[in-house]
Amino acid sequence: MRALLVQGSTPPTYWGYGHSLPFIRKDAALPPLGLATLAAHLPASWELRLHDEHLEALPDELLRWADAVLVSGMLVQAPSMRAVLARARALGKVTVAGGPAPTIAPERFPEAAHVFQGEAEGRLERLVAAVERPGAHDRVLSPSGEGRPDLALARVPRFDLLALDRYASHAIQVSRGCPFSCEFCDIIEVFGRVPRVKSAAQVLAELEALHRLGARGPLFLVDDNFIGNRRAAARLLPELARWQAEHGRPFDLYTEASLDLATLPELLAAMVDAGFSAVFVGIETPDRAALQEAGKRQNLRVDPAEAVRRLTAAGLEVFAGFIVGFDADDAGTFARQRAFIQALPIPRAMVGTLTALPGTALWRRLAREGRLRAESTGDQFGETNFEPAMGDLELLEGYRRLLAELYDEDAYFRRCALHLALAPMRPSPLRPGSLATLARTLWRLGLRGSRRRHFWRLVGQALRLGPAALPRAVTLAVLGEHLVRYTHEEVLPRRARQPAPLRPAGKVPGAGAARAAAAPTAS
After folding, report:
1. pTM of the model
2. Are 167 and 26 in contact (CB under 8 A)?
């Protein structure tokens, strides 16, 4: 059996860093870890190839080579996935869709002969049988009734199938699931609220596998909440620190965690000691009523601004997610978000409009209120897929202004300066290609770039702080090249071309009750 594993491509986004990748001579931000994980659990007798459409378009000869084509991706990648499935089906190949999007919305992939839902570990028998003996199995291969797999069953991903040298960062996964219950989040629907964790031995085996293949540099622990199981994280971190020390600290770690990490100084210190330099946190909004409405109660227990400062002062760059479009939001929401973000050392502030993802508590509530109006496409710049309480025009215009303000070059570099001023700078190993990257950056940004003044001001601040701050300043400037250019060259012109929504601003049926339910309590 010859199986081709294909990762669907993503349209340009903030997360793709398309304008920054040329500085480091890379072709994509992150490898398709999900497919590499799946490959480790497929039969050893199968011949496997893996193709990532972020690197290049899928050639016809690869499709003709395969007996079966297995395609994975998220909702925003669905058009790319469906195109690949259609091409494979036209060639008479067995087609399978899997991953996040088919798991939560199997009906969106009619081109697939089979849709595999959920996780791979310990439950691929039906998938293997459906591929090897086409036509005799259910179309949707659902995990219903089987429970979620124990990650003790997880194998080391097939990193050897990946073109590791073409990615800006490497990736592993330590845990799945999150203990919280945010209304808009599909993670808890897919992976559950009881975090499942790999053993330290399993994690170190994955690091060893990457290290043997020559991987070095940034490494993303893609956990939905790295501290979802705090005890397990505390057990793992000393082992990570020991491994890093024994191998010359080859990896610069970063991950996702809940904001309450800032209240756990011992765990935070252990993360920094293990080699973590950045963390993504979901702040969403400084408005308590919106957090209460969204069920994000963990953020109500901390002062978000103080939490960001603590995380930064401990040595982590905070890059954070924000949302606009909650029922509790009003006309002043955008100004409050802007003022909150601009006062903090958060260079990468990722703001999106609220989206009702299939299967989430938000989706179910809006369905009950009769407010759903479209499937989610994952496109945060178009009309929302539900009737927003504040009205479409006010939401999308406010969102456009907020992005324009946050990624004005003065605003972005001000947040970078706040980060450098507060974060302790530690020497980092000189990576292969670092000097060449520095030379390209000095030429493109320092000598020829339109933001030369901002670049040299940030570099000057870094040099005054000490040589260890220079790599961080250069990195932030390179990242900013994507964030600023993408905003002003793609996002804002696209919004200007879009027709104004026809729906007037104002409350929609059911919004009043939702807003009342979101009122903060005395606690």
Report:
1. 0.92
2. yes
Q: How far apart are CA 269 and CA 273, in angstroms?
A: 6
- The identity of residue 421, as a single letter, is A
Q: Which residue is associated with the tokens 């905003």?
A: 487
Rounded to the nearest integer, the mean pLDDT of the chain is: 92
**Cβ count near 12 (within 10 Å):** 15
Sheet with 276-284: list strands edge to edge: 170-172, 217-221, 251-256, 276-284, 317-324, 349-353
For residue 518, CA distances in Å to 258, 287, 289, 292, 296 come to: 21, 11, 5, 5, 11
Q: Which two tokens stand for residue 328?
A: 């509790």
Neighbours of 140 (CB within 10 A): 16
Reading the block at residue 349, the tokens are 């502030």
pLDDT digit string, tens, across residues 186-240: 999 989 999 999 999 999 999 999 999 999 999 999 999 999 999 999 999 999 9
Could you tell me the two tokens for 144? 């219903």
In this structure, the strands spanning 175-176 and 276-284 are: unpaired
pLDDT per residue as tens digits for the range 80-99: 999 999 999 999 999 999 99
User: In the Cβ-directed half-sphere of 192, how many Cα atoms lie within 13 Å?
Assistant: 13
Pairing of strands 140-141, 276-284: unpaired
